[in-house]
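Notes continue from the previous slide.

Worked example: a multi-chain complex. Inputs as given:
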Amino acid sequence: MPMPRPHCPPRRKLPALLLGGLLAAAALLPAIASAQAVSDPTPLHYRDAAEEARFHALAAELRCVQCQNQSLADSNAQIAHDLRREVLTLMQQGHDDAQIKQFLVDRYGAFVLYRPPMDARNSLLWFGPAVLLLGGAGVLVWVVRRRSRQLQPMDNSEERW
Amino acid sequence: MLPELGQILLVTALVVAVLQAVLPLWGAQRGYAAWMAVARPAAYAQLALLLGAFGVLTAAFVTQDFSVRYVAENSNSLLPLAYRYSAVWGAHEGSLLLWALVLALWNGAVARWSRQLPVQVLARVLGVLGIISVGFLAFLIFTSNPFARLLPAPLEGHDLNPLLQDPGLIIHPPMLYLGYVGFAVPFAFAIAALLEGRVDARWLRWTRPWTNVALGFLTLGIALGSWWAYYELGWGGWWFWDPVENASFLPWLAGAALIHSQAVTEKRGSFASWTLLLAIAAFALSLLGTFLVRSGVLTSVHSFAADPTRGTFILIFLALVIGGALLLYALRAGALGNDDPRRGFMATSRETLLLANNLLLAAACAMVLLGTLYPLLADALGLGKVSVGPPYFGTLFLLLMAPLVALLPFGPLVNWQRDQASRALAMLAPWAALALLLGAIAYFMAPQGALKTAAGVTAAAWVAFGTARFVWSRLRGNGRFTAEMVGMLLAHGGVAVFLAGALLVEALNVQREVALSPGQSLQVSGYEVRFEGVDHQQGPNYTADRGHMRILRNDRELALLHPEKRAYASGGQMMTEAGIHARLTGDVYVALGEPLGNNAWAVRVHIKPFVRWIWLGALLMALGGFVTAADRRFRRP
Amino acid sequence: MSDPRPVSRPLPPVAIVIGVLFFFGLLGLMIYGVMKSGAPDRDVLPSALIGKPAPAFTLPVLHDPTIKVSSNELRGAPYVLNVWGSWCAACREEHPVLTRFAETKRVRVIGYNWKDEPADALRWLEQLGNPFVLVLADIEGRTAIDWGVTAAPETFLVDASGVVRWKYSGALTQRVVDTQLIPELDKVERSHANAQTTLPAAP
C-alpha cells in the first residue's frame, strides 16, 4: 500500500519480476500527475532550546504509523512529517506530553506509543522482568544457603585466581 | 554452467555433513574408531566444498551473471566492483550461504585445533556441528537456493539495496556471523559433555577459548552494526532496540553470562549444570535470532522479506535441535557429577558475585526477549497492536544493569569460597567516593542532562577505578598477570569506556534542524556550521546533491564536510549520506534535509559528545575476549 | 584431574515444568507468528475510529473551493469516504473497482483528495473519470490526521448517524468490496432501518 514517495528505509526487496516486464508495464501508464504529495519541507520552528529538546524527546517516544519500525523523530515518511508538525503545534498550544500522546492514540491506536501504557493489559511486559528477577534472586539465595552449609576447608594448593 | 556447479557443491556438502553427523556420533556411542575418524576429514571436506560454492556465487556476482535469480535481484550493471563482492551476502539466500560457510569455517577450526581432545570427544563435537550443518544446508538447498536460475535472463539486474552499498556491509555481517555461528561450538561441546556424562576442568579448558572467541566476534559484529547504522542511516542514532538488533543482542547477553559461568566451573568445579544450560541457551538464542530475522515474524527495516515456508523450516529445525538438546539436558544434567556439593561457598565470595552477575544478565536477556516478542504475543492474545520500543528497553535495561555495574569491581577482588565483605569494601570505598565526587562535578558542569551526565561519569569512573585497583593489588602481590587476567582487564575497561560513551552521548547530544542559505551559519554547542551551498555530482550508479559544510570552532576551521542526498539509478529512492567530523571528544554530524528553493536547504546538525567511546569500549571488550582465549592454560593437555 | 563421581542430583521438577512450559509456549507463539506472517495485511494498522463518531470537519469542495462541506451535513445516510491523491499509484489501480461500486449507486461515494494540488487532482479525475458524488479537498492534511489516515488509498464506511463502521487500507479490489464492504454496508443499512421502524407508535 504505497504512500507518496515512500521515504522510510524500504523493506528488503521482494523477489523482482523480470525487469523488462516492469518497464513495459510502466510505459503503459499515462504519466499524469507529479509523483509527489504536497508538502512543506521547511524545518520546524521552535520557540526555544527547551521546547526543541522536549519535542525531540517526545517524538522519540512516538512511532511512525507507516514505517517498518521507526520513531516519529527519525522517519522521512510523508505522514511522519505531518504528524511532527501537528505535535509541535499541539505543544505550542500548551498541551502537555500526556495530552499529546492521548490525541494520537485516539486517532491511531496504542500502536503509536513506543512506551506501552502501564496498565493491566501490559502488566506482563512491565512487571514480568521484575518478577523474574525476584524469582531468580530467590533461587540465588537458596543456592548460596545450601552451598554455605556444605562448606569444606579449601585446599590451598588449588588456590588460583 | 557455473551456477549448476555451485548447486552440486552444495548438495555434496550436505551429503558430507550427513556423514559428519551420523558416523562420528554413532561411532562415539559404540566405540567404532573408524567411524569416529570420519569426523575430521568430513569437516575439512565440508569447508572446501562450501568455499567452492561461495566462490561460485561470488564469481556470478563479479561477472554479473543475471541468469542467476539471486544476482539479478541484488545487483546491476552499474554496481561498483567492491559492492559486487559484498552483495553476495546482501539478501537472504546469499547471507544464508555465508552462514553455512562460517559454520564450515568453525567446523574446520575445531577439526584443526583439537589435538588435545580425546577422539571420542572430538567425534561428538564435530558430530553435533555436523547436525547443525545438515540443517542449514538442507534449508539452503530446499528453500533458499542461491543458485536458482532466472530464465530468460534479464538484461539488467534490480540492484543491491542502496543502504547496503557501503563498506559497512563488507564487514558487519561476516563479523556478526562469526560470533553468532560460533556459539555452535560451545553448544556442541555441551552436548558432547551430556552424552559423555562428564564435565571436568579439562572439558572447560577445551570449551572456554572457543566461547570467548565467539563472544569476541559477536561483540565486534554488533559494534560494527551500531557504527554502521550511525553513519549510514542519517539520524545519528546508534542503537534502536529494533527486533533484528535485539536478535543479535540476546545471544550476546547469554554468552556473557556463559563465559563467567565457565570460569567458575573451571576453577571451582561448581555450576556445571548452569554452564551447560547457558551454552545451550546461547546457541538457542542464535538460532532463534536467525529464525526471527528470516521468517518475517517481526516487523523491522532490517528483516528479510517474509516467507512462511522458510519460517516454518527454520522453526522445525530450531524446535528439533533445541528441544533435543534440552531433553538431553533434563535427562543427563543431574548425573553429571561435577556439580560437586562438596565445593561449598559462603555468601561473601566470588561465586556469589558471579551468580548475581549471571542472574542480572539472564534477567536482561529475558527482558529483551519479552519486549521483542510482546507485540506478537499481544496480537496472539487479542490485545491489539502494541508497540514496544526504546523507552521500554532503555528504561528496564538501565535498571537491571545498574546493580551489575555497582558490583562489577568487586568480582575480581573478592576471594573464592569465603571472604570478608569488609575487606573488599575497604579496598574500594575510597574509589567509590572519588567516582561519586567526579559525578558531582560533572553534574554541575553539564550544560544539559545533568543527572544522566553525572550517572555516566560516576558509573564509568567506578568501573575504571575498580579495575585499576585490581591491577594495583596484583602488582603489589606476586605481580603476575595471566592472559586471562589481561583479557578480563581489557573487557572490564571496555565496559567503563562504553558506559561513558553511551550515557554521556545520551545526556549531552544536541540536535538542530534549520533552513540555511549559502553563506549562512548555525551556531551550536560552540561550533559554527557554515553552509556553503550544494552542487550536483555524478556517482557510478547514482546522482547526488552534494553539500559543502564548513565546521569551525572559535573561528578556526576544523573540517569541510560533504553530506549528500543520492538518487540511485536503479530505484530512484533517496539516500542520505551524512557528513561527519569525528573526534574522540565527540562528533559533528551533518545531514541534508529537503531543498527549500532559492538554493536554501533544510540542514540537520547533531553534536554527539563521546559517541566514539561506545564502539571503542566494545572493541576493548572484544579484544579482552580474544586475549583470554589465548591463555596458555587452555592449551594444556 | 576429574573429581570422583559423587552423588547424582536430578534436576528439580519445578525447573523441568517451567522449562517445558516455556519451550512449548515459545514454540506456539512462533508458530502463530509464522502463520500470520504470510497474510498480506499483517502490517496494516487497524483503525482506532471503528465504532466512534467520524471526526468533525469542514472542508472545501475540490471543484469549487468557495463551497465548504461540514461533517454534519453528511449525516442522515451512510457514505463511503475514499482517500486518494493524484500522486498515488495504487489509487489509480483501485479506480476501476471504485467506479464500478459507485455506479451501483447503493451508497454515496465521497472522494477525499489528500495533500494534492487541486489542478493535478482535477486533471486526474478528468483523465480517469470521476466516480465521486462529491470530492473534498484537504491540501494540508490536517483533517486527515483526525481520520487516522496513514497512507493512500484508504477507504472508510460511515453510517447514517456519523459513526465510522469500517476502514480499509490499501487499494480496493473487487474481492474486498464483495467480502468486506458490501456485508458491512448491509449491516449498516439494516440497523438504520431498524432504528427507523422502532419509532414509538403514534398515540
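Summary box: Chain A touches chain C at residues 1-5, 29-30, 32-39, 65-66, 68, 78-79, 82-83, 86, 105-109, 111 (CB under 8 Å). Confidence is low (pLDDT under 50) at residues 1-34 of chain A.
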